[in-house]
């Protein structure tokens, strides 16, 4: 099998890239190691920035977002038993939309399958061999081993995928911070506590409260990184969520049936080597952000937009100028999102036993709720920085 672009991974990065390439007349094959049911039902958060929503409408997969997405103008912050709303839309325009990642993936899969474009499930890439002229992939499928040749490879296969491991070790430039905490997440049959998502800063650690509809909530607790999920009964989870979210201006947190639990470690990671020859890394293969601020999905889509422009220019002109500038074009937006996510993480979480830490965090939170200048700066990044455009590529 031969294609112009072999895309490893059917997540937001890979599927968005495939859709953008298809609309430019560039062929691609998407290889996904899981089955279709798994990627379309795997529970994932999903706060879409305004540029992401706009793009999905432009490529024709925005109907689900329009029908089921919940518009958010900002978020709530609660500390010292008082609730504050940060209305970013009023200050900077645009809005965020809550739409679970698995639903967006399902929309993109339906678009690709409906268009008759190749998407292979249960296809695990065993090896990647890139040369100056192209690439060759060995892929294990339910029907046996197949070989795919391509002009380029897009590695969209996540932090533990095979793509980044293919980079020569002496070329890789990485930055990483591992936080001593994780998020214990639940899905519950309860009504949302506030009309938009809420971060509660507490001396015990953060609690996060968001919605997945009028009667389902997604909520998180900061816990130690080495937490055993089995140690947390439903009653213990609700007790701690109630304690950390206690306020004098809203009703007590509603309790209900918990039907899903998960544990997610917090880390910041950037591989600045996002390309080597004919291989390009996108999304979690190249960078991980803490969940605070919900930037991961949107960064993956931004990478896809950037690479689609570069590949389009290459196939139109035969030049590699934009392809060679792919990493340097993506990284400024990535680092801005990393800074935003780290700043929110360090402000809202309890990461130190030092009493001074809580006082400094409270002072920053107070600035957020008192200053519209601070809110505008937060809102610009939270609602979505512009994606790189063709004319924004370095000369």
Q: Give the oligomeric state.
A: single chain
Please give the number of β-strands: 19
Helix share, percent: 25-40%
Q: Could you tell me how far the N terminus lies from the C terminus, measured between alpha carbons in angstroms?
A: 35 Å
**Structural class designation:** alpha+beta
What profile does the largest beta sheet have? 8 strands, mixed
- Rg is 21 Å
Number of helices: 13
- List the uncertain runs: none
Query: What would the principal axes of the Cα set say about the shape?
Result: globular
| Average residue pLDDT | 94
Strand content bin: 25-35%
Q: Could you explain the architecture of this structure?
A:
Helix content is 36%, strand content 28%. It is of the alpha+beta class and 395 residues long. The strands form three sheets. Strands 1, 2, 8, 9, 10, 11, 17 and 18 form an eight-stranded mixed β-sheet that branches. Strands 6-5-13-14-15-12-16-19 form an eight-stranded mixed β-sheet. Strand 10 and strand 11 form a beta hairpin. Helix 1 (12-22) runs parallel beside helix 6, helix 1 (12-22) packs parallel to helix 9 and helix 9 runs antiparallel to helix 11 (326-348). The longest helix is centred in the C-terminal third of the chain and has 23 residues, at 326-348. The mean pLDDT is 94.
């Amino acid at each position: 099998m031969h294609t112009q672009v072999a895309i490893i991974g059917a997540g937001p990065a890979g599927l968005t890239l495939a859709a953008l390439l298809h609309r430019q007349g560039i062929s691609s094959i998407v290889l996904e190691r899981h089955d279709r049911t798994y990627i379309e039902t795997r529970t994932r958060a999903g706060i879409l920035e305004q540029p992401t929503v706009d793009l999905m409408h432009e490529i024709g997969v925005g109907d689900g977002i329009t029908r089921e997405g919940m518009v958010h103008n900002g978020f709530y912050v609660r500390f010292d038993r008082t609730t504050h709303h940060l209305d970013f839309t009023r200050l900077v325009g645009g809005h965020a939309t809550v739409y679970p990642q698995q639903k967006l993936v399902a929309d993109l899969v339906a678009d690709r399958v409906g268009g008759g474009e190749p998407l292979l499930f249960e296809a695990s890439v065993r090896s990647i061999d890139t040369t100056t002229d192209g690439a060759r992939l060995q892929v294990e499928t339910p029907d046996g081993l197949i070989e795919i040749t391509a002009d380029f490879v897009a590695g969209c296969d996540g932090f533990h995928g095979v793509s980044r491991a293919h980079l020569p070790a002496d070329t890789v430039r990485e930055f990483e911070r591992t936080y001593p905490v994780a998020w214990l997440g639940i899905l519950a049959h309860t009504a949302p506590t506030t009309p938009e998502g809420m971060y509660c800063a507490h001396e015990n650690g953060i609690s996060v409260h968001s919605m997945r509809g009028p009667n389902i909530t997604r909520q998180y607790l900061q816990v130690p990184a080495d937490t055993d999920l089995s140690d947390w009964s439903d009653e213990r989870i609700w007790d701690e969520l109630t304690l950390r979210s206690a306020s004098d201006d809203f009703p007590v947190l509603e309790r209900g049936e918990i039907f899903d639990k998960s544990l997610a470690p917090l880390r910041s990671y950037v591989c600045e080597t996002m390309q080597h020859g004919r291989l390009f890394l996108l999304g979690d293969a190249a960078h991980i952000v803490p969940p605070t601020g919900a930037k991961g999905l949107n960064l993956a889509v931004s990478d896809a937009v950037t690479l689609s422009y570069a590949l389009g220019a290459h196939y139109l002109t035969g030049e590699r100028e934009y392809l060679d500038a792919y990493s340097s074009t993506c990284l400024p937006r990535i680092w801005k999102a990393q800074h935003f996510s780290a700043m929110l993480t360090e402000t809202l979480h309890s990461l130190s036993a030092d009493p001074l830490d809580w006082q400094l965090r409270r002072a920053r939170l107070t600035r957020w709720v008192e200053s519209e200048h601070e809110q505008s700066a937060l809102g610009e990044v939270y609602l979505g920085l512009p994606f790189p455009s063709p004319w924004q590529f370095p000369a």
